[in-house]
Design goal:
The chain is mainly α. The protein has a single domain, classed as Hypothetical protein af1432 (Orthogonal Bundle). It has 10 helices and no strands. Helix 2 packs antiparallel against helix 3 and helix 2 crosses helix 7. It is globular. The termini are far apart.
């Protein structure tokens, strides 16, 4: 099987097996993949080291949450991914994918900074930034919180807090390296603020006009 169909089937199967909710499953992988494609396309002329790294970037984007500690022990997730990739990529490519997906999360970057990945450093940033850009969707945050077992009200409030304390600080925290992501994140930042205001009005409408037993 060609790599792309195999990767998507792996995410579908693993998400079902690990009960990974829709906020981090196949749809999210595809969103990150497309953001990465946009970043790559708009950055290739400025960063020649990106040439030839598309398979690593796109594979990392698709698989990155299949070893998320929220759903699985990281080491177990990485082992499964490496076994899946064993006959589909070279050892160097597999090693690079592992290094990217285990060091790209917001919490890892805030705690440890960026890793040193040599000629794959820009590929790392493209993958990491694609994941950050996908986070500017408060609906995704609400979905995740609801799947943890919180009430709808608590899920919405926790999502507001997440955006106030984290997502809307991505730019001021200088988490974007490429020019494309710096520009796109400004657009998504503004859109997210509108989305939050819309949610507040929707919630107020229900609070004011519907009576629950």
């Amino acid at each position: 099987m060609r790599l792309l169909p195999a990767l998507l089937q792996y995410v579908k199967f693993t998400s079902t097996k690990l009960k990974i909710d829709e906020s981090h499953a196949l749809g999210h992988s595809l969103n990150v993949l497309h953001y990465a494609h946009d970043i790559y396309t708009n950055s290739i002329n400025k960063y020649p080291l990106l040439k030839g790294t598309e398979p690593i970037i796109y594979t990392s984007c698709i698989l990155h949450d299949m070893c998320d500690k929220k759903y699985i022990n990281v080491a177990d997730g990485v082992k499964s991914i490496n076994e899946f990739l064993q006959y589909r990529m070279t050892p160097i490519e597999i090693d690079t994918v592992e290094k990217i997906i285990t060091s790209m999360s917001y919490s890892r970057v805030k705690a440890n900074g960026f890793p040193e990945l040599g000629k794959y450093q820009i590929a790392y940033h493209v993958t990491r930034e694609a994941d950050l850009l996908s986070a500017y969707d408060i609906n995704r945050a609400i979905i995740y919180e609801m799947y943890t077992g919180l009430t709808v009200e608590a899920s919405i409030q926790d999502s507001y807090n997440l955006f106030e304390n984290r997502v809307l600080k991505y730019r001021s925290d200088n988490l974007f390296y490429t020019d494309y992501s710096k520009q796109k994140s400004e657009e998504l930042h503004n859109e997210a603020m509108k989305q939050i205001e819309a949610w507040k009005k929707i919630k107020q409408c229900f609070d004011n006009n519907f009576v629950y037993d």
